[in-house]
Write a sequence for this structure.
């Protein structure tokens, strides 16, 4: 049904300035339907800023964003969400004072009837392996589990494009593996952009990788080519090893 | 299971409340009955702020703006219509419309929480001064003279629906006021279990997450604010009807502050807490007033400080915590090893939920 060669998301000359700081500079980026893209780059490269513009949390200083042919630059977050984009933010955004189940249900129930919402909630709880903690307050969970709750809310909203900003941060090795598994499973039907610093994790899921550096796209290629590239080593891996 | 248990408990308490309202006139003297009628009207005001602050996360420093508008709108409408039936609705619609306009400006204008407090406070002051300066003969709406700082005396009391000649007796006014309190409580409960209410609470918890899931926080906050305005208006109607009088002091900032104290003491994030806090404080203030020994503001201040230091969550959430601790202890005594490690966590959850 879906035309996998069609463009899902496109940015042109996207730029974000904070006073004198240019967090994103002239970023032109294209993603196809049901594609999985990894986004890497050193701290402060502008990855989260890029996500914030895509999801409507920031209005770009200049440039355009097109999602499914619709211009969304500067639109409100809830409008973009309703078009079918979901995001797990870098700093966790969950409903801490509500139960795990309520978190997921709030997401699922936006466009479904109560019985369907309950079914989706149960499915998602199972997928993120938190069924037995469904009644617990999210604020009481470990960091890794709260990340999953947030991923769960994103999944329950059934978006066509999912942005994940450092989904594996604070997770145990087993949890990281499970997250990689979930991402691959989601990718069978939906597009994703995943930001991660954990290169092992990137290797588990990556096909195409885009490298950000100082607010610009440094290169875009297969994981193998990116890992072998000297410039990437210099700006990213070099820094990381040194750190 | 625990959910249906608590629903059952609530239904029992509701039945008890209705029975209490029905029996009160038989047990109480007329003076006491009128006193608790006033408490009931003020409890509705407490519920209005308890709802928007505790569940919508909107701290309004000027809830008396809607209370006062309700009172005045009722008085003006009742004098002009000669029948209280429609006037009650006018007394709710005017403050609701005002809340809609003010809320639209605040929420869609992305005013921060701090300024929201300042704006609501200022608007209340403006309304006070505005009404206060309507002393001249020229300030009349139809047959109703606004009267400036003197207020409007002899506001028509509630009559039987559609029959202006059947003015209600104090006993019937008690039924109407206490009945309205129970109705407002039940309606807010239903709102809170509805999809709208659950999303509103989620927005209180994390506005960013809610918007990233496709909910427009501005719209939800606006609706919560309007519901609160209408309920505060109803309280103003009943208050004005109780005294057959309304004056600019109905907009008093001291009352706005007192509502916040009621809620702090009773428990933010609950519905019954604001009602209990309101009744308790009103009873204490009335008692002090009749004894003339202490300054009631001083006592109020001491009570507030004591609560903030000793029971910061307020009465109802603290009682809930103690209750669940007691249950946990009982479960442990019963030798249920299954519960090991569980009960402590559970207490914390309830404590957290009350925040
Ligand atoms: N609201 C803001 N105001 C000013 N500067 C900002 C703001 N947000 C981000 N920046 C700056 O923009 C640059 C890019 O930040 P961004 O958070 O997008 O980087 P990142 O690639 O996500 O980094 P990390 O890997 O550490 O998460 C940084 O220099 C940061 O300090
Ligand atoms: Mg980042």
């Amino acid at each position: 049904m879906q035309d996998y060669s069609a463009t899902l998301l496109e940015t042109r000359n996207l730029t974000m300035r904070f006073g004198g700081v240019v967090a994103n500079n002239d970023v032109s980026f294209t993603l196809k339907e049901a594609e999985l893209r990894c986004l890497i780059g050193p701290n402060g490269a502008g990855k989260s800023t890029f996500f914030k513009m895509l999801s409507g949390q920031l209005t770009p200083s200049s440039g355009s964003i097109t999602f499914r042919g619709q211009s969304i630059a500067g639109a409100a977050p809830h409008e973009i969400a309703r078009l079918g984009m979901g995001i797990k933010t870098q700093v966790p955004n969950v409903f801490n004072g509500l139960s795990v189940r309520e978190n997921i249900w709030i997401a699922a129930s936006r466009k479904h009837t109560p019985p369907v919402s309950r079914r989706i909630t149960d499915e998602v709880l199972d997928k993120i392996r938190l069924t037995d903690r469904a009644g617990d307050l999210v604020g009481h969970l470990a960091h890794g589990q709260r990340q999953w709750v947030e991923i769960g809310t994103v999944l329950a909203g059934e978006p066509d494009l999912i942005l994940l900003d450092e989904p594996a941060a604070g997770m145990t090795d087993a949890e990281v593996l499970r997250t990689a598994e979930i991402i691959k499973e989601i990718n069978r039907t939906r597009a994703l952009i995943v930001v991660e610093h954990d290169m092992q994790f990137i290797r588990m899921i990556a096909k195409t990788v885009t490298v950000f550096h100082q607010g610009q796209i440094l290169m875009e290629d297969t994981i193998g080519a990116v890992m072998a590239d000297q410039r990437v080593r210099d700006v990213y891996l070099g820094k990381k090893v040194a750190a | 299971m625990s959910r249906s248990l608590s629903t059952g408990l609530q239904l029992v308490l509701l039945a008890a409340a209705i029975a209490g309202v029905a029996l009160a006139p038989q047990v109480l003297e007329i003076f006491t009955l009128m006193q608790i009628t006033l408490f009931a009207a003020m409890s509705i005001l407490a519920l209005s702020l308890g709802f928007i602050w505790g569940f919508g996360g909107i701290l309004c420093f000027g809830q008396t703006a809607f209370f006062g508008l309700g009172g005045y709108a009722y008085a003006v409408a009742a004098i002009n219509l000669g029948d209280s039936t429609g006037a009650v609705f006018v007394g709710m619609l005017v403050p609701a419309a005002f809340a809609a306009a003010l809320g639209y400006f605040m929420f869609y204008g992305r005013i921060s929480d701090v300024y929201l407090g300042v704006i609501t406070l200022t608007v209340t002051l403006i309304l006070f001064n505005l009404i206060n300066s309507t002393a001249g003969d020229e300030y009349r709406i139809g047959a109703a003279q606004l009267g400036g700082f003197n207020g409007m005396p002899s506001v028509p009391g509630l009559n039987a629906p559609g029959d202006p000649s059947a003015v209600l007796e104090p006993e019937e006014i008690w039924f109407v006021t206490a009945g309205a309190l129970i109705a407002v409580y039940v309606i807010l409960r239903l709102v809170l279990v509805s999809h709208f209410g659950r999303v509103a609470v989620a927005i209180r918890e994390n506005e960013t997450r809610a918007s990233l899931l496709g909910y427009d926080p501005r719209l939800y906050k606006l609706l919560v604010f309007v519901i609160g305005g209408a309920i505060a208006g109803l309280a103003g109607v009943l208050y004005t009807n109780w005294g057959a009088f309304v004056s600019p002091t109905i907009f008093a900032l001291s009352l706005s502050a007192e509502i916040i104290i009621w809620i702090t003491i009773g428990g933010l994030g609950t519905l019954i807490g604001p009602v209990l806090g309101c009744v308790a404080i009103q009873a204490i203030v009335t008692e002090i007033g009749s004894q003339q020994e202490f300054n009631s503001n001083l006592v109020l201040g001491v009570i507030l400080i004591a609560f903030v230091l000793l029971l910061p969550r307020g009465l109802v959430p603290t009682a809930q915590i103690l209750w669940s601790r007691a249950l946990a202890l009982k479960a442990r005594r019963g030798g249920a090893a299954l519960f090991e490690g569980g009960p402590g966590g559970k207490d914390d959850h309830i404590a957290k939920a009350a925040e």
Q: What stands out?
A: The CA atoms of residues 195 and 201 of chain B lie 10 Å apart. Chain B has 14 helices and four strands.
